[in-house]
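Annex B. Sample input.
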Amino acid sequence: MPQGQPVTVPDDNLTTRQRRNRPLLIVHTGDGKGKSTAAFGLALRGWNQGFDIGVFQFVKSAKWRIGEQTVLERLGALHAETGEGGPVQWHKMGSGWSWSRKAGDESDHAAAAVEGWREIQRRLAAQTHDLYVLDEFTYPIAWGWIDVDDVVATLAQRPGRQHVIVTGRRADPKLVEIAELVTEMGKVKHPMDAGQKGQRGIEW
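Annex B, continued. Sample output.
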């Protein structure tokens, strides 16, 4: 893409504006660090453009509060107070989705994942958000908790102009196939390989 220009212009009978404004399905996958970080960076960029942001974390414990959550929720509060940017909602899995507050253990996670996915489907149908971050969503798909064909059909047929970002390792090939933007992050080195644990400000 030299100087931000596409390499080819498809014969799709769309204007440049129509083509530019098409909603994107974005997948961040691979074994390297930074998949979620990049997705939250896009959420910050979208917030600045006034997007309604919805973040849905599928694996991290509800008790673990990452730094990006604090920042985005404060930006959501700023929007409520001043109108700047856009609204932000953040929902986490673990001890239960934040709208249900159900207690649970490992045996309940599959059902909770399906419940969370159904809520996202309802929001997509209602065009609730402009940008959805489905963080670590590849895992419940890979574990067979959520049907990949249902995911592909829902995302491919979503109405309006709703951008969706999916993160996680080993993204299903069916999801990769329908995505417009796929980035595979490869690990070259990681401090954990040398026995160093995650540190504040880098991992959370």
